[in-house]
Amino acid sequence: MQRDGNPAGLIGRAALVLAIVTVAAMAAGCQEQQLQERNAALQKQLEQALVQNADLQAENDGLKGQNQALTDELGRVKSTTPEAAGTAAAGKPKPDFGEGVDVQVVGDTMTVTLPDKILFDSGKADLKAASKHVLDKVIAVLNRDYATSKIRVEGHTDNEPIRKTKKLWTDNWDLSCNRAMAVVRHVVSKGVDPKRVYAAGYSHYKPVASNATAAGKARNRRVVMVVSPR
């Protein structure tokens, strides 16, 4: 076997190999650094985009809120203008059913609130004779101006448990339903189509005033007739 006895040749080859390895390592190092720098730049861009997106979302939410507020305000303005009030009054005039009876007319809907003292004795569900005259006035308007409307008759009580007439009623649900039905039967007996009328008893769960005072309880004991197209 022939051996290369030239030390200089061996050293030269070794140096060449070392140079190649060094260059490769440097190239790899440069490439890695470039990739790291590029990744850092992309990360920074992503963070900036996320911040901008959050700002835009907040601005969008603010604009939505302003738009809703303006829409609500426009609706209130329209509903309170003299022109709107005049139109509603011209289409559906607000009738007067006597002292103590509250009437609200909005567009095609009329709401008539009758205190229980006008219609019934305490704890009872039989209509007073005088109350029928009031109801007959209401019925005349129903037949004249609301001939095709639905009529929901609601019975409402205060939150006092049934005491004096507890043999008649299980609870305020029972009393409120029977009072509503008494009004429904009278309305139908006067010629209103029974297909247009229905009763609902709410007991004391839809108060319009505080039950902590006698005056509040009196306001809550009522029958409400809601007359609307549907």
Structural write-up:
- This protein has a 5-stranded mixed sheet with strand order 1-2-5-3-4.
- It contains 6 helices and 5 strands.
- The longest helix has 74 residues.
- β1 and β2 form a beta hairpin.
- The protein folds into 2 domains: 80 residues; 133 residues, 2-Layer Sandwich (60s Ribosomal Protein L30, Chain: A), CATH 3.30.1330.60.
- Helices cover 57% and strands 13% of the residues.
- The chain has 230 residues and is of the alpha+beta class.
Task: Give a summary of the structure in a few sentences.
With 230 residues, this protein is α+β, with helices and mostly antiparallel strands. Strands 1-2-5-3-4 form a five-stranded mixed β-sheet.
Features:
6 helices; 5 strands; alpha+beta; 5-stranded mixed beta sheet; 230 residues; 57% helix; 13% strand; 60s Ribosomal Protein L30, Chain: A; 2 domains; rod-shaped
The residue fraction in helices comes out at 55-70%
Taking all Cα atoms into account, the compactness measure Rg is 42 Å
What's the mean pLDDT score?
Answer: 83
Domains, number: 2
Between the first and last Cα atoms, what is the distance in angstroms? 113 Å
Strand content: 5-15%
CATH fold descriptor of the largest domain: 60s Ribosomal Protein L30, Chain: A
Number of strands: 5
Largest sheet, spatial ordering of strands: 1-2-5-3-4
| Overall CATH class of the largest domain | Alpha Beta
